[in-house]
Amino acid sequence: MNSYHFPQFLFILTCYLLLPLIVFAQPPKLPPAMPVEVAAVKLGTVIEEVTAVGSLLPQESVIIRSEIPGRILTFHFAEGQPMAANQILITLDAAEYEARLAESEAAVKLNKISFERVKDLMAKNLTSHQAFDEVQAKLEESLALHKLDQVRLEKTKIFSPFAGTLGLRNISQGAYIQTGQDLITLVDSSSVKLDFRIPEKFLAKVKLGQTVSVGVDAYSKQDFTGEVYAVDPTLDEDTRTVLLRARLQNSEGLLYPGMFARISLVLERRLNAYLIPEQAIVPKGEEALVFKIVNGKAAMTKITQGQRRTGEVEVLQGLSPTDKIVISGQLKLRDGVEVMIVGDGKPPQQAP
Hints:
CATH class of the largest domain: Mainly Alpha
CATH superfamily of the largest domain: Helix hairpin bin
Radius of gyration: 45 Å
Helix content: 10-25%
Shape: elongated
CATH architecture of the largest domain: Orthogonal Bundle
Strand content: over 45%
Structural class: alpha+beta
């Protein structure tokens, strides 16, 4: 090789050796940004409630019974009739009790005369203290028997203890009844009670005055509203449930004691709850994750879920109202990947 071609040869050789270095020294091309759809965290009202079943009870209910035996003389009511408080219902034949009262009145008069006579003799020291004590005790005894006969005579008239509606009777006029025999039922249903049970895990959130929504089969398209007014202080050991009692107004008389009721008890209302579309959640084992957008990149974020409702999930921890989260395309994302937002970023509209 002559001297003329040697520099050219060195130049070609140098280029050949440096070519790989020049090629590989170029910066690598970054992967394109992942297209995703996003939605903003929404503020809304979340109602936490628990469902149960129960039975309706009357506000007051009593079986009318007689405190004395006797023959029914008169009924002063019609079956199913509303009755005011202290209104006469039944009159018993009072002839026997009137005779007993007259007898006891005569005994009282006689014993008063004897007592006054012995009292005068006692003042003159013409009788003993024992004789005076005996006539005094006899007078007091006759007065007590007279009072008892008065009470028995009064009980021949049976009155309604409170305002309500009478049931159906199974006895007839002229029948002889015994003490304590069932005569008729009186029910006050101007308001009704509702007994139902809920699991003990909800007990900490139960408060007096909470609203219950009630449905019954007789009026399937109508809901009734009441309030919790009492909580049983003990739990059922077998079911680990607590018994609650609510009251519902029944001015229209639509609700009957004994009805089966389906109940929804409102435990809490959260007015400014964080809500996100349910499709934004990426499950990972027992955890719930979402991708939120931070500086144009996807940031995997763990959240604590609250209540679920149609199409939405409440977020208790992990997000703020200013966050935007990925709702489409997140299955191909990784933490820290650059993203390209498509769409308007507004929450999707719920189907009507």
